[in-house]
Amino acid sequence: MTALAIEGLRKTFRDAQKGRHVHAIDTIDLHIQSGEFVSLLGPSGCGKTTTLRCIAGFETPDDGAIRFDGTDVVHTPPERRDIGLVFQNYALFPHMTVAENVGFGLQMRKVKKADARQRIAAVLDMVQLSDMGGRYPRQLSGGQQQRVALARALVIEPRILLLDEPLANLDARLRDEMRFFIRSLQQRLGITTIYVTHDQAEAMVMSDRIVVMFGGLVSQFDTPETIYGRPASRQVADFVGLSNFIPGRITGREGGTRLLVETGLGVLKCDCKRPPVTHGRAMIVLRPEVISIAPAPPDVPPGTIDNLFPAEVRERHYLGHATDYRVACRDGSVLQVLGGAMDEVVPGREVWCSFPPDRSWLIPVLPGAAP
Amino acid sequence: MNQAIGRIVLTAPRRRAAGRWRWLLILPALLLVLLFLGVPYLNIVVMSFRTPSTGAPYAPGFTVASYAKALSDPLYLGILWRTLRISVLVTALCLLIAYPVSYHLARTRSRFRGLLFACILSPLLVGVVIRCYGWIILLANNGLVNVTLRQWGLIRRPLPMLNNEFGVTLGLVHIYLPFMILPLLGAIQGINPSLEEAARSLGASRIWVMRHVVWPLSAPGVQSGTVLVFVLSVSSYVTPVVLGGSRVQMMAPIVVQQLDEAFLWPFGTALAIVLAITGGLSVVAWFRITQRLFKGAL
């Protein structure tokens, strides 16, 4: 298996219409361990696909190195990089049968016919398409085609598996199934995998670590838990999951890690380990499921419960597994809360909201943003 | 709900009625073809079986003598053979030259793509006759090419490039190249570039990708382009006359000669029918061959 290092990667494209250069990738450094599943996550145009294409060898970076186990491959053509590539549109050869498609890479490697036949059968078995070898791609469903594409990429036992939004063309149910299928296959084979997606749920479920990219730069590179629970910036928090942002000013410290934040809702306590901001203006990030609401003030002496504040219910949407409330606080800000269905919590009703200090997170206020 | 059912009941018969009269839409085209192609063709077929005459276009009675002559006289068989030979050569050369151009044009993201496209189409704006005379200026014994080569001292005597098969082939390739490029361009544009990238990632070199992915998938374009150029070459008239002169005779000029100069309408039409049938059979044979060549891709 192969470790992948990307060092100082840069790539600009000439915009034909505007006649100027656009940074597709603006200096990226990534160190990916052998056998790791890493997702490149970001909105379209963030440079994730360009990064993947640089790794595959279809784009030559302006600057920087791409190392497979320490060896720079920037000047190696794609056919000699030993990569497995799966495209969003599957890119199966329409004039070849499933078995011929899967066997293409083996043919290139001059694997003996009998040997190849065995490996094709084994890999088709792995993607549960054993009896489809004689069919043509157009005779298969989208999900089956995607599995053929996966088999074709895996049969050559590539050093690195690259997947470019492979599930984007599948329907929701199949996509869900394929996520787990690809992840378990990857873990079984222990193959280093780079997965490009704009679907944060997909990245969360599958990855060991996620690279969140914006505007050709890496905003955060960490485990799904950290990205979700401790986002590096508002952009990351906004892109990954739903968030409430409460602007304020850090006014003090209580104990070791507890910070006091003065906000429109009063002084709130945030207990976070090494937040990206520790003094001055800051934003509290609260995931909707972190806030709990109650129809009446708790029957305990005041000050016992941290971060308690009143609000008025504005909207209530039943989602099935949870209920989505929009509550307006005293200062006019509206928060999104995900909680259980409570009959008495209806629009117009006053409720009490609270959140545990250790489930909040602090991020810097973007320069130029309103306080 | 009831309304919806009502609407379905109402619309169903109307749709069937539309289907019944739909063929009317092709009537103008059908009439045009029948009247101005079908009938004259029939006339040609009938004419080819007429008895020749000297004072009139034909004498009373029918005969197969014209066909017997067309298919036994070594002169005409030779001309037919030359016509087919040159046409095959022209088709092959067009394919060879057009393929890289089409591939480039299909894949380039250059700003000059539009300009390139215009360059390829622009010769079509100039008449065939004018283009052939243009070649005379270049290829004649005292033409641009020979004069230049002589001045550079590369040759002593002018290279014969006119009134021979070289000139005719060159002219035909030049004139029919766009008819090869356009179908190829369409076919190659229809091939998703990610197929080529997939092949590269699996270890295929550029050449291998061309041979085993792009080429077979462009088969429909290859097929239509080659058929188009072959048929056009077989029936070409102006180019062989202007660039081949009396030494490189091809079928279409000979047919015209029989009708126009020799006033042998039955024999001329018989030659035309022979040409049409051999051309048609060649195309059918070529379809068979390509079908086998591009198994799975067509």
**Shape summary of chain A:** elongated
Based on Cα principal axes, name the global outline of chain B. globular
What is the assembly state of the chains in this entry? heterodimer
Summed up, the helix count of chain A is: 8
Let me know the average pLDDT of chain B: 90
What strand order characterises the main sheet of chain A? 6-7-8-3-9-10
Measured as a percent range, the helix fraction of chain A is 10-25%
Q: What is the C-alpha radius of gyration of chain A, as a whole number of Å?
A: 25 Å
Side-by-side strand order of the widest sheet of chain B: 1-2
Contiguous runs where pLDDT drops below 50 for at least 5 residues of chain A? none
Written as H for each helix and E for each strand, in order along the chain, the element string of chain B is: HHEEHHHHHHHHHHHH
Helix and strand content put the structural class of chain B at: mainly alpha
- Give the SSE string of chain A: EEEHEEEHHHEHEHEEHHEEEEEEEEEE
The amount of beta strand of chain A, in percent, is 35-45%
Distance between the termini of chain B: 47 Å
Range of strand content of chain B: under 5%
Number of E strands of chain B: 2
- Return the structural class of chain A: alpha+beta
Biggest sheet architecture of chain A: 6 strands, mixed
- Average pLDDT across residues of chain A? 91
Which pair of chains has the greatest number of interface residues, and how are they split between the two chains? A-B, 32 and 21 residues
Q: Can you walk through the features of this model?
A:
The complex is a heterodimer of chains A (371) and B (298). Chain A has 371 residues and is α+β, with helices and mostly antiparallel strands. Chain A is built from 8 helices and 20 strands. Chain A has helices at residues 48-56, 98-108, 113-126, 142-154, 172-189, 200-206, 224-229, 234-239, and strands at residues 4-15, 20-32, 37-41, 63-68, 71-72, 83-86, 160-164, 192-197, 209-214, 217-222, 244-254, 258-263, 266-271, 280-286, 292-294, 308-318, 323-329, 334-339, 350-354, 361-364. Chain A starts with a strand and ends in a 7-residue tail after the last strand. Chain B has 298 residues and is mostly helical. Helices cover 74% and strands 2% of the residues of chain B. Chain B has a two-stranded antiparallel ribbon. In chain B, helix 6 (128-139) runs parallel beside helix 12. Chain B is globular. Chain B starts with a helix and ends in a 5-residue tail after the last helix. In chain B, 32% of the residues are buried. The chains are: A alpha+beta (371), B mainly alpha (298). Chains A and B meet through strand 6, helix 2 and helix 4 of A and helix 9 and helix 10 of B.
